[in-house]
Write a structure and sequence with these properties.
With 475 residues, the chain is of the alpha/beta class. Helix content is 40%, strand content 11%. The chain has two domains: 255 residues, 3-Layer(aba) Sandwich (Aspartate Aminotransferase, domain 2); 125 residues, Aspartate Aminotransferase, domain 1 (Alpha-Beta Complex). Its cofactor is pyridoxal 5'-phosphate.
């Protein structure tokens, strides 16, 4: 039930003292044509309403959450403690620089650490999320080419296994997208890449490991092909959790990168944010970075790069998210960062190995942080789809993995267990997947009905898409 439906006239929980100044109301032309609809409830009713909603939501703290390509890892509570310190929460972005030296040191330290992890030379935390970071990185590439009067470069190469935001970001930056197919091994088709690499290419957008969880063995050749034709290489950092502290994108030949601070570095990214899509770059792009960057030793100050593309967000990004990420990096340290990455890879390979005797793996080889299953054969034999299995997982206390992505794998389920899950949790999840496979053979109809333990059962997604109800109709 909506909070508006629980409303009753006259109820409330706020007691205002009598007004001791003259009441001034807007003129008739500035007034609303109808009264503002606000729910009227007691404090008890409000508390119960939001508690009820909280019980219906699901997060990493509720159980296994293997959402592929999203790195839904546990967020240590010490991160929240540090981000709650008064010295961080009780500041204002318009304060003079000399009064917030500690906060500037946080920004400078995060830049130093993330540049070390990624192999970049400068980094900004201004972008608010991953796609925002993608757009920022592409604007850096565009500014670079324009500074050289190389305006014929109007295309961005994007592999067919890329994240859906990649072509969208390239289009928003004013580029046309050239899609290249994957080869049989799930990696970039080198010959197809060579065929499109020309003097009209501004750059390549790629994540490594890629969206099917594989590290491209030809990555140095790929980035060289793009560089040789005059383009730049952009690294989508969504999958950095698989290589952080072990391999640097800068060493792979990438010129610019975005990081999902709200994934890889354990700051929450549920509920719509806030997030941070930090963008790093090599020296050749540093002069174009968004304003402003932090410089200085004894006294730190904000500096606008010489040919800055401007501000990508008001002020300095989501600062407290950055505090949480810095806490995570300092907690793990130089040894802990690569250990977390190795554990993520180990967990993914353990799960894949325990399931590949019954489920078809899209690419039956050592994976990185995630693996992709194709349920195409299961659907053909039993009628049970990837959607059916995903919905049934909910009834078994587990959040579904990513469904029907990447698009190059039919009936895909993409599983990313992350490093924060124990062997016992993985074994329980494996047992559930195996149980559902057996159920698909014996009672497929039951899986078509899943989920049956949730407040709302299987939704008519086609009907919702074609006939959406976007506004609440007042009685």
């Amino acid at each position: 039930m909506l909070v508006f439906e629980k409303s009753r006239p006259g109820r409330g929980c706020t007691l205002f003292p009598p007004c001791d100044v003259d009441v001034v109301t807007p003129s008739d032309k500035d007034k609303r044509e109808s009264e503002l609809h606000l729910p009227e409830l007691s404090e008890t009713e409000i508390s119960r309403h939001y508690t009820e909603l909280a019980k219906k939501s699901r997060g990493v703290n509720d159980g296994f959450y293997p959402l592929g390509s999203c790195t839904m890892k546990y967020n240590p509570k010490i991160n929240e403690d540090m981000a709650s310190l008064p010295g961080f929460t009780e500041i204002h972005p318009l304060q003079p620089e000399h009064t917030v030296q500690g906060c500037l040191e946080v920004l400078q330290t995060v830049e130093k650490y993330l540049c070390e992890i990624t192999g970049m030379d400068r980094l900004t935390v201004q972008p608010a999320a991953g796609a925002h970071g993608e757009f920022t990185g592409l604007m850096l590439i565009k500014a670079y080419h324009e500074s050289r009067n190389d305006t014929k470069r109007t295309k961005i190469i994007v592999p067919d296994s890329a994240h859906g935001t990649n072509p969208a970001s390239a289009t928003m930056a004013g580029y046309s997208v050239v899609s290249i197919p994957s080869s049989a091994d799930g990696c970039v088709d080198i010959e197809k890449l060579k065929a499109v690499a020309g003097d009209d290419i501004a750059g390549l957008m790629l994540t490594n490991p890629n969206t099917v969880g594989l590290f491209d063995k030809n990555i140095l050749e790929i980035t060289k092909i793009v560089h040789d034709c005059g383009g730049l290489n952009y690294y989508d950092g969504a999958n950095l959790n698989a290589v952080m502290g072990v391999v640097k994108p800068g060493d792979m030949g990438f010129d610019v990168i975005h990081l999902n601070i709200h994934k890889t570095f354990s700051t929450p990214h549920g509920g719509g944010g806030p997030g941070c899509g930090a963008v790093g770059c090599k020296k050749l792009l540093a002069d174009f970075m968004p304003a402003v960057l932090v410089e200085g030793d004894a006294e730190k100050k904000f500096v606008k790069p010489k040919h800055s593309i401007g501000e990508m967000k008001a002020f300095y990004g989501n600062f407290l998210v950055v505090v949480k990420a810095l806490t995570y990096i300092k907690t793990l340290g130089k040894e802990g960062i690569p250990q977390a990455c190795k554990n993520a890879v180990l967990n993914a390979n353990y799960m894949m190995d325990k399931l590949k005797d019954i489920y078809t793996m899209a690419y039956d080889q050592i994976c990185m942080h995630e693996f992709v299953m194709s349920l195409e054969d299961l659907k053909r034999k039993t009628g049970v789809s990837a959607m059916d299995i995903a919905k049934a997982l909910i009834d078994n206390g587990m959040h579904p993995p990513t469904m029907y992505f990447p698009l190059i794998v039919h009936e895909a389920l993409m599983v990313e267990p992350t490093e924060t899950e124990s062997k016992e949790t993985l074994d329980d999840a494996i047992a559930v997947f195996r149980k559902l496979y057996e159920q698909a053979q014996k009672d497929p109809e039951a899986l078509h009905m899943a989920p049956v333990t949730t407040p709302v059962g299987r939704l008519d997604e086609v009907g919702a898409a074609r006939n959406p109800v976007l506004r609440y109709k007042w009685k």
